[in-house]
């Protein structure tokens, strides 16, 4: 993929193609995600784009390709071949509230074609609109869909293809979670960020840390421990609360440019002995961490976290500066 | 002591005007969206709410259908209208039959006059979000004038609020209603001013713990003292309600981790510091400080623990006031 980028600088390796049967919810996802994407775009435009090959005009391009309900109409022309070859991830949306057998045949056909054009494509399947299903049924549906897709691919002789499945709904955080993961897969430089976060976690008694984009609810990176969706939600909402409270006391008249704005920072102690920590990083990023501490060591550990987070921020800035020099 | 701290609040109004929704949002942590699930209230629904520790609010949520209403004014009238401290009458701004609404209002005023003449009367013009923004003020003043006129013969002084469950106006109305019931407000206020002198804070706000209604704040007191001056132009006049709203959202959000919060410290973007901390068993305090000195990242670390220490020291005094009732 990177090689093609070198050849044609206008090619974007992190393009996401959103596909699915009609009324699957693609456009709504697009709206939700596009809205969130913009700050993230600017982040990768200028800040930590360390490898020089990674220069997009935008990080994610969602082009919605509307497909007819009947498979027979689908005959990819030359255009879609080029499309598939320039795309980094193919997101296929399945409406879980509808009959999905049609969608599955359609999916396997698309996979077969896309894989033949571009074998490095990431194939992601969103089992969408799960907000309408009961808890028990969700897992059943997921298992059923995974099973059938696997069988179909086996029949087509494509057992090597990696397909990831996500249960999503735009009414809760699952769509953000899914897209966070999809976006993360597309940026091969993220492991270095993750390593840095892992380092931070190890040395400051942090349970879980996210590097959030402030305006969207997408996390750019997290440490390698498993993500608990509730922790993620709480951390995302903690950003909102901090910003909302802060905005109430930023008076309009004092917004002259002579005063430099200081980085936001907030700490909240919870009654179960943990602590939410937010530190503003560069370029609209914020680091949110859940910390468990021991009662008697509180002051010391907070100071250590402060220091370590500052170090993390410095290295982020270095990455960003390095990226600018290399261009 | 216990007798005087029981407060009876009547929540009345025609059916569908939003009485139970209000109650659920303020006292039961419902979100505005959740209130759609509420059905009609049958007869009177009593709720006993502990507020500020030793104050108990007996909230009588009176179902508003005509059958029940007639009952209240005839057979049950001494039961309903005796020993009432506060009557909260809710008007639906979209109501088609305003005259009938007025009629019931007059009826309840008549009974109130007879059975508990010292009661305070609040009227809420509810569902304001359904009115166009530029017409809201006008509609509110017209309605209030009308209501004041018909209630004149009963010598009650009406206090009215425009409210909606979709914004923070609901918190404003209810914190004023509830504050009118707190007996030693003046002690709280004077102590809060003293505390402010010590801290030299931008402002200090007191909240009730479970409902997060604003009990008192220093800036409003200072405004009352120097009445003639123009209101401060820079800060958002609705900020108290917004803060209530934000912190309640926060409480709901962290309840997903099955916990509550004890404090929240924010170092803001233009040198403002926020401290939200437990003050007493029933109150939260919020202190807003402005940095006078620029570029003091190191010093403010010490300041943080100093402020928290100050709050800890103030805790004893406020607990004393609270328990003296």
TrEMBL record, chain A:
Catalytic activity: GTP + H2O = GDP + phosphate + H(+)
Pfam families: Gtr1_RagA
InterPro entries from the UniProt entry: Gtr1_RagA, P-loop_NTPase, RagC/D
SUPFAM superfamilies hit by this protein: P-loop containing nucleoside triphosphate hydrolases
Parts of the chain that traverse the membrane: none
Principal place of residence: membrane
Gene Ontology CC terms, in alphabetical order: chromatin; fungal-type vacuole membrane; Gtr1-Gtr2 GTPase complex; late endosome membrane; membrane raft; nucleus; Ragulator complex
Keyword Membrane: yes
GO molecular function: GTP binding; GTPase activity
Keyword Lyase: no
Function: GTPase involved in activation of the TORC1 signaling pathway, which promotes growth and represses autophagy in nutrient-rich conditions.
UniProt subunit comment: Component of the GSE complex.
Name by which UniProt lists this protein: GTP-binding protein
UniProtKB/TrEMBL annotation, chain B:
Matching InterPro entries: Gtr1_RagA, P-loop_NTPase, RagA/B
Molecular function in Gene Ontology: GTP binding; GTPase activity; identical protein binding
This protein's record includes keyword Transmembrane helix: no
Listed GO CC annotations: chromosome, telomeric region; fungal-type vacuole membrane; Gtr1-Gtr2 GTPase complex; late endosome membrane; nucleus; Ragulator complex
Function: GTPase involved in activation of the TORC1 signaling pathway, which promotes growth and represses autophagy in nutrient-rich conditions.
Family of the protein in this entry: Belongs to the GTR/RAG GTP-binding protein family.
The protein, known as: GTP-binding protein
Protein species of origin: Meyerozyma guilliermondii (strain ATCC 6260 / CBS 566 / DSM 6381 / JCM 1539 / NBRC 10279 / NRRL Y-324)
